[in-house]
Amino acid sequence: MSVPPPVIVRSLRAIDADWKLAQTHPHSRRATRLHIREADGTDRELVLLTHGERDRKRNPHIARDEFRLLAALQKSRLPTAQPLHLDTEHEPPFFVLTHLPGAVQSAAKPHRLAEILHAIHTVDWRRLQLGFLPQAAGLLASDLEPRGGDWLRIRSALPRLVVNPPVLLHGDFWLGNLLWADGQLTGIIDWEDAMLGDPLADLGKSRLEMLWSLGAAAMQQYTAAYLALNPALDASALPFWDLWGALRLAHFDQFATDAESAARMRLQYQRFSEAALRKIA
Length: 281
Prior knowledge:
Blueprint: H1 5-15, E1 20-26, E2 31-37, E3 43-49, H2 53-58, H3 62-73, E4 83-87, E5 94-98, H4 110-121, H5 136-143, H6 150-156, E6 167-169, E7 178-181, E8 184-188, E9 195-197, H7 199-214, H8 216-229, H9 238-248, H10 259-280
Antiparallel strand pairs: 1-2, 2-3, 3-5, 4-5, 6-9, 7-8
Helix pairs in contact: 4-8, 7-8, 7-9, 9-10
C-alpha cells in the first residue's frame, strides 16, 4: 500500500528537518523501505509501515496501537524497531520507524524459539501501560460468532476453558517475523496483531507455524521447551488454542510457494486440526 512521496517527506521533516528522501523501495505488503540522506551526506534506511483494510476494520486504531506498543517496548529487553513518527492525517494512517539489521532464517533451534516467545510473554505489560491493546477474549468472541463446521465445536468447548492470566501476545509469532545476524536475534517485527491474553493463544497458533516451517518433531520440541519455561502455566486448554490458531490460519494456501508445498501444508493442517478436535471432544 503506497504512500505518496510528498506525504513521506512531510513525515521525515517532522523527525528531522534536514533529512532528504532519496528513494523508496516496496518491501512487503505493508512495509516500504525509505532511503534517507542526512545533512552531512550520510545515508540511512528507515521503514514505513501501513495496515491493510481488513486489519483496520478489525481495529480502527491499529496504526496508533502498534506505534504506542513499539514505543513502550523500547523500555524492554526485546529487540524491536524504534518508532519515529505517526501520521494519522493520511488515509490510511502509517508510521515511520528505524530499520533493524539482520535477515529471516528458514531454520532455527526449537528451544531458542521457545525462549523468545517466553521473553515476549514475560514483558511487564502493566508497567509499560499496554492496557490499550486489544483483548484476545474480545477477538475470540468475534471469531466465534454464529458459524458452522468446526467453529461450532470450538465454541462448545468454551465452558470448559481454563484461561491463564493475560500476558503480552505477539499474535503472529513465526520464523518470518524474527531477524538474525551471526546467530544472534536482532529483531522481532510485525506487531500489528499484538494483544493481551492467555499465552497459550500465541503458543497454539505458532505451533502450527512451526509445524509448517520445521516439521512435527521440531514443533513438539518447541512446545515442550516453552512449557518447561512456564511450569505454572495450565496447559490443559492448549488443544482449544491450537484449533483457534488453525482456524485463524485457514488461508494458509496464500503462504505456499508452489503446488507441492501447498499440498504438504494442507495435509499438516488437516492432521493438526483433527488432533486438536479429538482432544477437545
